[in-house]
Design goal:
This protein is of the alpha/beta class. It is built from 22 helices and 16 strands. It has a five-stranded parallel beta sheet with strand order 7-6-5-11-12, sandwiched between helices. It is an enzyme of class 6 (ligase).
Amino acid sequence: MHMACYFRRSIASKLSRALGRSEDAFISALCAIPVSKKQQSPDFRLSVNTLLRNGILPTNGNLQAQTEALASQLKQDSVVEEIFAGRGVIHFRVSRNLLVQKVLEQLCQERHKFGVKSELFDGLKKGTTVVEFSSPNIAKKFHAGHLRSTIIGNFIANLKESLGNNVIRVNYLGDWGMQFGLLGAGFQLFGCQEKLKNNPLQHLFDVYVQVNKEAENNEVIGQAAREFFRQLEQQEHQAVLLWKQFREITVEEYQQVYKRLGVHFDIYSGESFHQQQAQEVVQQLQRQGLLKTTEKGTGVVDLSSAGDMSSYSTVLRSDGTSLYITRDLAAAIDRKERYNFDEMIYVTDKSQGIHFQQLFQILLAMGHSWAERCQHVPFGLVQGMKTRLGEVVFLEDVLDEARGRMLRNMSQSKTTKEMVYPEDTAEKVGISALIVQDFKGPLGSDYKFDWDRILQAQGDTGVFLQYTHARLCSLIHRYGDGEEGAFDPSLLLDQRSISILQHLLRYDEVLYQSVQDLQPKHLVNFLMTLSHLTASAHRELPVKGSPQAVAQARLRLFSGVCTVLANGMKILGITPVKKM
């Protein structure tokens, strides 16, 4: 049992016996309170209003009298030390000795499972989760615009996995469409296998730019592009061979970028996988009477509630070829058959909101009730992402820039430790700075990118997060983790230690909140506050020069914080560094 739940369970048990209701009814009304920087905070809040809303208390009673009655019950619990009853809410502190003992005991026992074993998660269905994210277009260098989908999807997959779900990470590549007709025709005219071997994606990019330019004034090239794509759709050997070469080269190149980001996929899928199935979906829509033909000859599905075509989705071109949404329908149905998932999450920018709304509507209309468990997680745009050379296009440039700037900052800092591979550390810290900057606010919001701000060593940055973790690792490496021998909780009753332990009480609630709305900001804010509290404690609670028992107690506290920081960072997709 998680330590916050130890206190919740003890209090809920007391109230349950007194009022003859289940313990779970009271647990949902209890929550840990955020730590205040200005004054000592209570540990928990019991919402009487929540109990009224859930029918646990009679709604016709006097609110103040009900609050006071509950407060008097709580006073009898040995866990509770102080109570502050207001109108409809009760704040209370638990025994300080018990707080220290239970939190650090739990950290020692659970380590990497700390927080995720909480009873808060008992009601959540554990099953198979498919997360589709990143999804760049093949035959192009990895555009910086795909960074958000990649890191957000990775966070969601990590979070679900940490809570015991079987997660399948899917990269649904843009590997089909008329642009490949243009690229194929262009390569036949301007391509060079030697250049393709030496610098594959740059060469394909150059070919694509050149053929586009030529096609503007030369209809023959347009015809050649249509002909190449026709050959591709007809599965003609030479065209498919060239397309496969483009796809394999791209995946190999992308895997290098993903490796730098610490991201992996279980499946590299793509639109091309679902060509045949897309036609089967169209036939099924026809059989079910869902497919209508417009005057222009396009195939559409009526999505209007009145059946008057005021809202519809086009699933077929007039020439009978499938569209992006048709292939998405086929992909969703195929994944359900293949993986029998319990939920599927798509991570793309917010401009695709209507597309996914229509996708889920059509699936439901086809009788696929599981579409209700499909979800689109939208995100906003990053504005002003540039390198020193100007406007950025490719993600590799951004990662190189982050590493280079961080390396310069580290070389100029007086606190930087000697390292065998400083570039590797600079890369990890630079990427963590990018991730934290991205995750601080609501995902749906646009934000302005600022190199100087994101790489600051102080403030709410990924650099500060890594620095705090590395500092704790250095302390533990030098003096040990304090877990051997007897431990006296009374040696950690100072306000700095108590504030950290109070904050740790909230960790399971923060994870619970994150899994409810799939927003990383809750976890980022929690880890930032923990880092600031730890920085203050590190200054005021020295290990060196303190009596042995005091030093051991403080080391145990700092070791626990280090574990939680590392666990939380890994869920965010950040690789913690031990030295910087």
